[in-house]
Automatic annotation (TrEMBL), chain B:
One of its GO terms (cellular component) is membrane. Residues 2-244 form the ABC transporter domain. Residues 294-358 form the Mop domain. It comes from Streptomyces populi. This is ABC transporter ATP-binding protein.
Length: 293, 359
């Protein structure tokens, strides 16, 4: 019997001395290089940076610092700001109540056409907001498919009301939340839910007491994204809810309108929005972005 | 030899009586499993044999297919959702809830089963006490060592007072040193447990130390079951033989001679007829450079060295040739024989060191 004997492999005898070796470089950020960046990358990068920062700098440079307090003291400003903060928060709340279960459904269940549903949910992300506003009018307007019934059955009309602002903002902002939460859910180990079930938790209890706390950072990040998107919403709001001061005129609408006749007022309002955005970003950075990276 | 009859619980009686049938694609699990209260049964098998699937089926996390049945203490559980089964599970990587303290992890089960919060926490504290972890009540799982996390996981599963405790590779996530301690503790807790425990492992030592009875599963079916010593003495598949470290052959016996399917014959002390297994430990093999002349050994084969590796304080020699076999030699003997891969040697085994049993 002289079948070809496999070559000796005694060299791998001390293999277990290798374990524990490659764990080392953990603290280092992977992919970050020391030394100079090549010019073809550096140059466009700097141009891009300037391009993004220049408008903000211009806003600060041209701001009417002298009359700023006077500009901001106008009651219309506070009215618009209050309305903006309220409607963005309400839209985020609506997005949470409807969006988190929707995200769970997309991440945790299997049903025919799930891919299509997911695509449709993300559609408002890429849809021009004005088109969204028109679509909302056709659906929920006084003569809309559903709006007509709302009007005749309950006497509810949404267009050109504060509720309409909330609806328009939620329509545009909710996909951000759904996508963010769905991603977090997919990354979370579904076996925690199984473990909870073997301990006697129903599927809903498992979701509420185990999954929800686990994905809380994702929900928070998604909420902030949705809230910021709702705060800046313009197209769908003006199309569906109109531009009535005190009722549907949010900050972005007020800025746009002010720009027509009083640019100082527009700049002052813009500064306020910029401040809010920076505050949101700072909050995100401290709480979740660093934790996630 | 296998135990005369594994304890079979009548469907109406106490304990576990199950036939776990799960079909998934081309894979089919079909495992018959029964145990009396107080029994610890180990499902032992290679990766992909279906052990974890069997455990999931018992827990209700994977539905049984056509032909399956599951009775526990006289109650049919096939269609019962996992949250309503009196079953506790210790998962392989424990799956302790990271946002809850050790205490709240243990209290989670009783809470879900309707125990008031204060009472559930008192019970959980008692469990921590019993596990020797009282000072870790407020600790998050992330801050527990592997052994501590394992004990919290066992306590969490036991806190719901299950009638069936399932453990999926309960020691696999631990390093060798911790393993020894935790294995001893787990054995202690399992001995105290008054209901049925089923544990899944691919480690024969864990299985033999922790369980009263082993059920060996390969490719979705039971290939052998019995007490640890029966299995260790009389393996019936190559996988089990390898696990318990025996050379195993199958052949036809005619008195003291067993003619193997692939050529040579082995002389044994047992007198048997018909299909049999023959097993002998690698330590029973003696190697010679030249054909031994005056040897009393009846079992003599010419072999070729296929490989050498250290095995404890000995050298395990893999041999091919007339009869593929493994031999254990001292380092000195290996050096004196000048063994190298490719060397030609003669192997002898005394009949008295073989063990033959009906197939």
């Amino acid at each position: 019997m002289s079948d070809p004997v496999t070559p000796p492999d005694i060299s791998d005898a001390p293999a277990d001395t290798l374990t524990g070796g490659p764990r080392r470089g953990r603290g280092r950020t992977p992919g970050r290089m020391r030394g100079g960046a090549p010019l073809p990358l550096l140059l466009p990068a700097l141009v891009g940076l300037v391009f993004l920062l220049l408008p903000l700098v211009a806003l600060l440079v041209r701001a009417p610092w002298g009359s700023l307090s006077e500009q901001l003291a106008k009651p219309e400003v506070w009215q618009a700001l209050r309305l903006s903060l309220f409607s963005a928060t309400a839209a985020t709340a609506v997005s949470l109540v409807l969006g988190v279960p929707l995200a769970w459904l997309l991440a945790r269940t299997e049903f025919p056409g799930r891919g299509l549903v997911r695509a449709l949910v993300t559609l408002p992300l890429v849809l021009p907001p004005v088109v969204g506003g028109v679509a909302l009018l056709l659906a929920l307007g006084r003569n809309g498919v559903v709006g007509r019934l709302l009007d005749s059955w309950f006497g509810i009309t949404l267009p050109f009301t504060t509720a309409g602002v909330v609806v328009a903002e939620a329509f545009v902002a909710m996909p951000f939340l759904v996508i963010s939460v769905e991603g977090t859910l997919r990354a979370a180990d579904p076996r925690y839910e199984e473990a909870a079930m073997t301990l006697g938790a129903s599927r809903f209890t498992a979701f509420r007491r185990v999954t929800l706390p686990l994905i809380a950072p994702g929900i928070a990040a998604g909420s902030v994204l949705a809230w910021a998107r709702a705060l800046g919403e313009f197209g769908a709001t003006i199309t569906f809810a109109g531009n009535f001061p005190g009722r549907t005129q949010t900050m972005p609408l007020a800025v746009y309108l002010a720009l027509q006749n009083d640019s100082d007022a527009a700049i002052a309002l813009s500064l306020v929005l910029l401040l809010v955005s920076v505050a949101v970003l700072a909050g995100l950075r401290d709480r979740w972005m660093t934790a996630a990276s | 030899m296998t135990e005369t009859d594994p304890v079979t619980a009548a469907p109406s009686g106490k304990g576990l009586d199950a036939r776990l049938v799960v079909r998934r694609g081309s894979f089919r699990l079909d495992v018959e499993l029964s145990a009396a209260p107080g029994d610890v049964v180990a499902l032992l098998g290679p990766n992909g044999a279906g052990k974890t699937t069997a455990l999931r089926a018992l827990a209700g996390l994977t539905p049984l297919s056509e032909g399956g049945r599951l009775w526990l203490d006289g109650v049919r559980l096939d269609r019962t959702p996992p949250e309503s089964r009196p079953v506790g599970v210790v998962f392989q990587d424990y799956l302790l809830f990271p946002h809850l303290s050790a205490l709240d992890n243990i209290a989670f089960g009783p809470r879900c089963r309707g125990v008031p919060k204060a009472e559930a926490r008192t019970q959980a504290a008692a469990w921590l006490e019993r596990m020797g972890l009282a000072e870790f009540a407020g600790t998050r799982p992330r801050r527990l060592s592997g052994g501590q996390a394992q004990r919290v996981a066992v306590a969490r599963a036991l806190a719901t007072r299950p009638r069936l405790l399932l453990l999926d590779e309960p020691l696999a996530a631990l390093d060798a040193r911790t393993r020894l301690d935790v294995r001893a503790q787990l054995r202690h807790h399992l001995a105290d447990f008054e209901a049925v425990a089923v544990l899944v492992t691919h480690d024969p030592l864990d299985a033999m130390v922790l369980a009263d009875r082993l059920v060996v599963v390969e490719d979705g079916r039971v290939v052998q079951e019995g007490g640890p010593s029966d299995i260790a003495r009389g393996p019936r598949t190559d996988y089990i033989a390898q696990l318990v470290g025996l050379n195993l052959y199958r052949g036809e016996a005619e008195g003291h001679t067993v003619r193997l399917e692939a050529g040579p014959a082995i002389t044994t002390t047992e007198r048997l007829d018909g299909p049999v297994f023959v097993a002998f430990p690698p330590g029973a093999v003696t190697l010679h450079r030249d054909r031994p002349s005056g040897s009393s050994a009846r079992n003599l084969w010419q072999c070729r060295v296929a490989g050498l590796e250290t095995h404890g304080d000995q050298i395990r020699v893999d041999l091919t040739g007339e009869l593929p076999l493994a031999a254990d030699l001292t380092t000195v003997a290996t050096a004196e024989l000048g063994l190298r891969p490719g060397s030609s040697v003669w192997a002898t085994v005394k009949a008295a060191q073989t063990h033959a049993y009906p197939a």
